[in-house]
Amino acid sequence: MPDLKVISKYGVGTDMIDMSAMQKYGVKLGWTGGVNRRSVSELVISLAITLLRHVSLAHQEVLSGIWRQHVGGHLSGKTVGIIGCGFVGKDLVRLLQPFDCPILVNDIEKYDKFYKEYDIRAVSKEELLITTCANEI
Predict the structure, then answer these.
(1) How far apart are CA 97 and CA 135, in angstroms?
(2) CA atoms of 125 and 122, how far apart (whole Å)
(3) Are 104 and 80 in contact (CB under 8 A)?
(4) For the stretch 107-132, what's the b/e string if a residue is b when 16 or more beta carbons lie within 10 angstroms of its beta carbon?
(5) Cα–Cα distance, 126 to 117 (Å, whole number)
(6) Does the pLDDT at position 137 exceed 50?
(7) Which of 24, 25, 91, 100 suits 39 as a labelling partner, its CA being 20 to 30 A distant?
(8) Where are the beta strands (DSSP E) in the chain?
(9) Is 0.85 topped by the overall pTM?
(10) How far does CA 63 lie from the centroid of its chain?
């Protein structure tokens, strides 16, 4: 594609784009980080609540003609682990505030000012997984 001038990217990350080839051929990249952060962070919360309340299982049972009550848990007060505290991770932290969840994060970058502002604890990936799995979310 010798006439290619620009590649436009929508979504998370640019790690799948060959930047050195683009530079070599003078191709520009059109990308703005974080444009889908709210969609992703809202989806995370909705899926967490869906899992905690057994919504998918109850739905399948109702479709099969079974009606029984499922006892689920609340997101409120649960320890939540977030791997990656970039655009989506930061937005997720903000959306979790009304749920009063202790939040653990793991990221290759340090966002100490953000962590302090939201009372977040940065931990190793191993500690995050062990702690949050023990608390069932």
Answers:
(1) 18
(2) 9
(3) yes
(4) eeeebeebbeebebebbeeeebeeeb
(5) 24
(6) no
(7) 100
(8) 6-8, 28-30, 80-83, 103-106, 121-122
(9) no
(10) 30
Domains of the chain (ranges; CATH) run 1-33 (no CATH), 37-134 (3.40.50.720)
Structure tokens at 94: 């903000």
Task: Using alpha carbons, select from 48, 32, 136, 128 the residue that is nearest to residue 92.
Answer: 48
pLDDT tens figures, 69-126:
999 999 999 999 999 999 999 999 999 999 999 999 999 999 999 999 999 999 999 9
Q: What is the pLDDT of residue 11?
A: 74
Q: Are 50 and 56 in contact (CB under 8 A)?
A: yes
What is the spatial distance between Cα 102 and Cα 98, in angstroms, rounded to a whole number? 11
**Distance in angstroms (rounded) separating the CA atoms of residues 75 and 55:** 14
